[in-house]
Every structure is written in C-alpha cells, then in structure tokens.
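RECORD TYPE: protein structure
NAME: Peptidase M20 domain-containing protein 2
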Amino acid sequence: MPLTTGASSTAHAETASAVVDAAATDLVALSHDIHSEPELAFHEVRSALKTQRLLAERGFEIVTGQGGMDTAFRATYGHGPLVIGVCAEYDALPGIGHACGHNIIAASAVGTGLGLAEVADALGLTVVVIGTPAEEFGGGKALLLKAGAFDDVAAAVMLHPGPIDIAGARSLALTDVMVTYHGKESHAAVAPQLGINAADAVTVAQVSIGLLRQHLSPGQLIHGIVTEGGEAANIIPGRAAMQYTMRAVETASLRELEEKVYACFAAGAMATGCSHELVESSPPYLELTPDPWLVAVFREEMESFGRTPVPAEFEATVPLGSTDMGNVTQVLPGIHPVIGIDSGGAVIHQPDFEKAAKEPGADRAVVEGAKMLARTVIRLAEDEAERSRVLDRLARRTVKV
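PREDICTED:
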C-alpha cells in the first residue's frame, strides 16, 4: 500500500482530531460515568459495558469475554494490515474509587479509537480498542497476552493520568504474594504453652524485612500489609496472613529480591514453629519499556498541545509504580505516557487525586490525550520505515509473556 507523508499526514491527523472534538461531550460523559460508580478488579461490569456501547455506536465490532474474563473485550474497526491496540482500563481502587484515574484512561482510549477509525481505510489500519480489566490487582493484560488477545497487534498505546506530563514513562517489575502462617490455637492465659502463635510469625517476618531494607539495591522496594492476625486477644492465633509486594527496576533484580524476602517469610515460620505457604496473588508485572520512537513522537505531540513533559534526561528520576502494560511492552512496541490533570499536587492513589479525576483538567486530558495518541499512531502508519519495523517485529514474534 502506498504511504503518504507531509501535508497529507497533517490532514489525517487533523481529521482524527476533529472526530475526537466532535465526540468530546460523550467522552467526558463516559469518564464521569465510570468515575461515579467505581468497580474493582474483574467486577467492572458497568464500566466495561459503557465503554463498549460508545464504541459499538460508532461502528466497532465488539467481542466480549476475552481471556476468560467477563469484563475484557476487543472492539475492532477496519481491516488494514497494521493492527494497532489501544488499551482501556476501568478498574478502581478499594476505598478510594478512581484515585488512579482509570476513568480517564477508558475515555481517552475510546477517543483514540474513534479518531483512528476515521482514517483507518486511508492508512491501512485495523484499530482494536482492548478492554483490559484488573490493572490495579490481577494483571488483566498479562492474562490477555497469554490468551492471545495481542497476537495480531503490531503496536499498543495507552496513557495514564498523573500530576505531571511524562512522555517516556517507565514502571517497575512487580511480584505480589499472599503468605499465610498456620500455628495452633490455645487459651492465651490458661495454656499459652500449648499454642503456636501465627501472629508472632508475622511479626518476625516483618522485622526481618525491615532489617533487610538496609541491604536493598537501588530501585528495589518492599511493602505489605497484615490481612489476618487473630480473632480475639485471649486466643493464641492459629492463623495469620500478609500480602506483600516486591518491586525492582528490572525482572532480574526482582528475582534476587524475591529470594531474600521469601527467606524472611521462612524465618517467621522457623522461629515460631509455624508452617507457612506462599501464593502469588497476581500474575507478575514486568517492567515497562516504552518504544523510543513512539515516545519521541508522543513528546512532540504533547509539546504541540502546549504541554511541557518532563525532559527525557530526567524521566529516570521520576518515582515509579508498576503496571501490567509492562508485560505488553516486553512483547511488542508500546507506550504508556502520563498526562497531567491539574491535580493540585496530589499523586495517584490519594483521595485528592480521586477528586481531581473528574475536574476540568481531567476532562481536558481525556480529549487532548485521545488526540495525541491518535496523532502518534497516524505518524507511525505514515512513516514507511517505522511501519515496516513494527510489522517485521510482529512477523518474527514467538514469545508470549
């Protein structure tokens, strides 16, 4: 297919932007709607349906139940050889709703899809908006990768709200585990010597982890909570449990950290006479490695909208979380930029960020973010060398993470 550049590139980008502008009222309404009724991982029934409906009304073909998840879907438009995935998230956080702004992610993904659909035939695109549940907990994208939902996708894009603009955002690899200690109940006053205190095992493990922190390598993080610690003060707890998350800049470093933390868990059991079991509570999240070319183009688009993204040389200094979009970028080219929403200094997972995620700055991020992602994809589609690069990589792909 002959590819066009120059003035026609601008024409396609402006066409896509105009479509997003025309849909802006509906996109913002979707963002507010999802924000108003937050749903947790794997239970985003209403949010997924609302997202699907807006796409279906614009001619996208919807297939639900992807990867065995009721709230996962693929919405497809076009039949071109270059398949672009646009990832939509819509799960919320327990207790603080959409304090991570996934309502903005879903609405901007729909807007991106609508803008690209308008130019899909001209650019030889197939546009696939992929509904990805359970990013906060559960690894929906990791499950979708294994189920084949990205098998035909040459490149994937999405964006995430935050307090500042970051074109080349990265994230940490993550392992999340549940550790359960089994001891023996007894009366805490009458016969404490007959009990085996599972809560003490938790304490020993936590102290061990606290002492381990002085030996962590840069970029390694450990954090956790006690989820179960006994039912009454006069009963020696026979069962106690914790949830712990380990993070590192790279998967290899994470594996080293896991070994040390698991030894701390074992120390708790050994010191108290308990048994213990470990269960991964989510698929591992791999580090986010964005595609350099897509990052550079998205940075230019951010700047063209009057935004000031963090300079590339300082992006590595920005504190990182983790995302299952990292798993996607280990398999295919992708980006996960951060778009600022005027949060007044609040960061994600804070109550004030939840409030900001429905304010005018967030609405602006929905519309501008959709335009910037669409324009980035259009530039990929029109650049013969880069288009060939991602298609060649797709043809050679053999690994699912």
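COMMENT: The radius of gyration is 23 Å.
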